[in-house]
Amino acid sequence: MLKLSSFILCILLSSTCLSYEKADPLDGSRNLMLYLDFVYLQRQAKIQERCIVKVEDGLPEGIAPGIVPDPNNPGFNIEEPIPSSCQRGKCKVTTKDLLHNQGFDPGFRATADYMPNKKVTLQATYTGLLDWRGTRSANCPDSLEFPFQDGLNNTVDYQNANIMRTSLRSTYWNLEANYWYHVTPRRIDEFAFAWLFGFRYLNFRENFHLKTITNTQSSDFKINVKNRMGGLQLGVNFEGNLGPNFTWGIQPKLGAIVDFAENHTVLKDNNNTSTLKSYNPSDFFMSFVGDFSTYFLFNLYKNLIFKFSYEVTYASNIALALNQIDFREDNIADIQTHVESGGSLMLQGLYISFGINF
After folding, report:
1. What is the value of pTM for the model shown?
2. To the nearest whole percent, how much of the chain has pLDDT over 70?
């Protein structure tokens, strides 16, 4: 935090010292502006919390509590107590545990602004290299299970397991092509206003993996979900100029998109030699995506800009891997023919960028 504060102070002092340059990178007299952003975002989502790894309700058949020597009475034995973390019926991993374990992830954004005149900006943006990973494991000898909804468990490896490992991987990238119209030119008056019309494409994918390990073998449960979303968006921008080298602004955007989603689910058992579930349905549905950003711009030199912003992106009614988990043991037909929507995605965090014009 101290290093970041010192850096921002340095930028402020630099912009003040360069006020005599009288050269503005955003005055519209230069045709091309390129930005490169370092991105640090947290991924959040709306999901239904479900238990995906639990300790069996009763002692597995043929398994008795361990017998160990009594430390207080030599020559006598006692039943080994079950650890509190492995109490019968206890949930060890939930869907929200995996989601919360993902945290923040770095990425980047590249933006090209072409300004044919002071009224119009043509903008292309790419955001990507965002890859969140969350893992959770449980270890309770001969007592872990996947909690099938019907209470039956005829599987080999999804009951009486020693170890169950779960993971969730989420990747995201975004493309935008926008037409900006500046109602009032930038950097001329104290305030500036602009609106945009554009196209947006988002690609969001998730991989869920559950590995169950027994005494002699292991099996895998995998779900891969793809969201390909595209549509039109509108937005506005409001800027305030605090001198020749410092600008602040806010920028909301909202778009209607169509989500083409896929769900590829494979549930294998008996050391991965038998397939209990295997299906790959696809579906499409209407969604909405919105952005809100607040930012600060500093002129570092006549053709160099520093930008610092906090931004939030929200997409509604999309498919999430954790919402596709089927807790029924049978291969139910309706699960095979549609993708479960209704999830939401929120990205929030910091963008730090430098821009140069030509």
Report:
1. 0.83
2. 80
